[in-house]
């Protein structure tokens, strides 16, 4: 297949990702995660993540070049996540990318991490079982749910027109899974543990609050999310049970909590599809691994006549291929490279 040969570097959180694409095809997607080093802290520790990137980035680069069977001199461009993310973590990737660009003379592109997530669905990963990519050129609503972000985007054009409709005003959805899992003693990361426990529970056992869905909230926060109230509500419920010497039914709590998160995420995403008359919904981010989220998304989008797009899981979580993919599009669209002086911007809009 033809297209631009682009290297992508992703270090915004705890995954060191090096991807290589040719046009819309993934040739290599090497990921080295420092997740295990954060487990005992119950969340990503920025300093630990940055040091891990520094150690992992060079071997990951060598591996990606070997897997793709290309040399640095073959590249048309280098792309790197410029933000948003953890400042120290981002700096490792941006520094490495600048060094490579200087040494090879290749053009360098700073890429927005969130645009990278959306762009993942426009790639064909020939190594993934579910390899279909869908770029029909039509606008789409994108819901990005991970440990670091919960964002609803209107994507009219991946490169030139991505509008942030709303985002979490406190915890990210994945963060809520991690915190509640910790509370219930289900380990870190929390999502998989909650999923396992919830399989034996009832989603309607406890009615936990749906953040920012009351009429008074909707006026200012129609597409925003809030999960810290939900987390507190779960904590209080567990406390009350324990104080009353009642047994905590972990399965019911997990299932009911998960239901509240899924309900709000999809309710708002589908409302956005309807408000903007865009009958397409794309899901991305680590929380997309959630079994209930996937099932309810399929049900509700079908009922609403909305086409659902979920990239293969290897492209849902943080990875370098999605950054390389955006880079390839930037090159193809004739965008000038970023000036070498650009920095890492932890709060890049
Ligand atoms: O995208 P990701 O791998 O990394 C970033 O945060 O960028 O997402 C990690 C998050 C964690 O908070 C984890 O608990 C959550 O994704 N997660 C899940 C599941 N698997 C991972 N959340 C819900 N259900 C899951 N099965
Ligand atoms: Zn991410």
Q: What is the gist of this entry?
A:
Its cofactor is Fe(2+). This protein is an alpha/beta fold and 349 residues long. The protein contains 12 helices and 11 strands.
Describe the structure.
The chain is of the alpha/beta class. It has 2 domains: 147 residues, Nucleotidyltransferase, domain 5; 171 residues, 2-Layer Sandwich (Nucleotidyltransferase, domain 5). The protein has 12 helices and 11 strands. Strands 5-4-1-2-3-6 form a 6-stranded mixed β-sheet, sandwiched between helices. The chain has a 5-stranded mixed β-sheet with strand order 9-8-7-10-11, with helices on both faces. A hairpin with a 3-residue loop joins strand 8 and strand 9. The radius of gyration is 20 Å and the shape is globular. It starts with a strand and ends in a 17-residue tail after the last helix. The structure holds 5'-O-[(R)-(carboxyoxy)(hydroxy)phosphoryl]adenosine and zinc ion (ZN). The site of zinc ion has 6 residues, from helix 4. Belongs to the KAE1 / TsaD family. It comes from Naasia lichenicola. It is found in: Cytoplasm.
The radius of gyration over CA amounts to 20 Å
| Helix amount | 40-55%
Walk across the major sheet and give the strand order: 5-4-1-2-3-6
Q: Which structural class is indicated by helix and strand composition?
A: alpha/beta
**Contiguous runs where pLDDT drops below 50 for at least 5 residues:** none
| Main sheet summary | 6 strands, mixed
Number of strands: 11
Globally, the shape reads globular
Order of helices and strands: EEEHHEHEHEEEEHHHHHEHEHH
CATH class of the largest domain: Alpha Beta
User: Distance between the terminal alpha carbons, to the nearest Å?
Assistant: 34 Å
- Counting DSSP H or I runs of 4 or more residues, the number of helices is 12
* CATH fold category name of the largest domain: Nucleotidyltransferase, domain 5
Count structural domains: 2
């Amino acid at each position: 297949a033809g297209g631009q040969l682009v290297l992508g570097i992703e270090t915004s959180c705890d995954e060191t990702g090096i991807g290589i694409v040719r046009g819309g095809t993934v040739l290599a997607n090497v990921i080295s995660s420092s997740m295990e080093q954060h487990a005992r802290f119950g969340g990503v520790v920025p300093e630990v993540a940055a040091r891990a990137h520094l150690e992992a980035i060079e071997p990951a680069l060598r591996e990606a070049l070997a897997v793709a069977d290309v040399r640095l001199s073959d590249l048309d461009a280098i792309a790197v996540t410029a933000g948003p993310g953890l400042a120290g973590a981002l700096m490792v990737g941006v520094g490495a990318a600048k060094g490579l660009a200087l040494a090879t003379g290749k053009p360098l592109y700073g890429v927005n991490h969130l645009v990278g997530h959306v762009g993942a669905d426009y790639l064909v990963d020939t190594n993934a079982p579910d390899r279909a990519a869908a770029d029909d050129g039509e606008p789409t609503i994108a819901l990005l749910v991970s440990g670091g972000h919960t964002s609803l985007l209107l994507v009219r054009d991946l490169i030139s027109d991505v509008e942030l409709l709303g985002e979490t005003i406190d915890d990210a959805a994945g963060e809520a899974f991690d915190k509640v899992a910790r509370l219930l003693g289900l380990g870190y990361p929390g999502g998989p543990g909650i999923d396992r426990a919830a399989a034996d529970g009832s989603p309607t056992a406890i009615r936990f609050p749906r953040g920012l869905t009351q009429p008074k909230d909707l006026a200012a926060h129609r597409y925003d999310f809030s999960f810290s109230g939900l987390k507190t509500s779960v904590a209080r419920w567990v406390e009350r049970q324990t104080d009353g010497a009642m047994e905590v039914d972990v399965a019911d709590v997990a299932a009911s909590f998960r239901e509240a998160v899924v309900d709000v995420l999809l309710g708002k995403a589908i409302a956005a599809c309807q408000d903007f008359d865009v009958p397409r919904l794309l899901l991305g981010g680590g929380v997309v691994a959630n079994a209930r989220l996937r099932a309810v998304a399929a049900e509700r989008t079908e009922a609403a006549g909305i086409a659902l797009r979920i990239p293969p899981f290897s492209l849902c979580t943080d990875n370098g291929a999605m950054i390389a993919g955006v880079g390839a599009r930037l090159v193809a669209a004739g965008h000038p490279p970023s000036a070498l002086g650009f920095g890492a911007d932890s709060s890049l809009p």
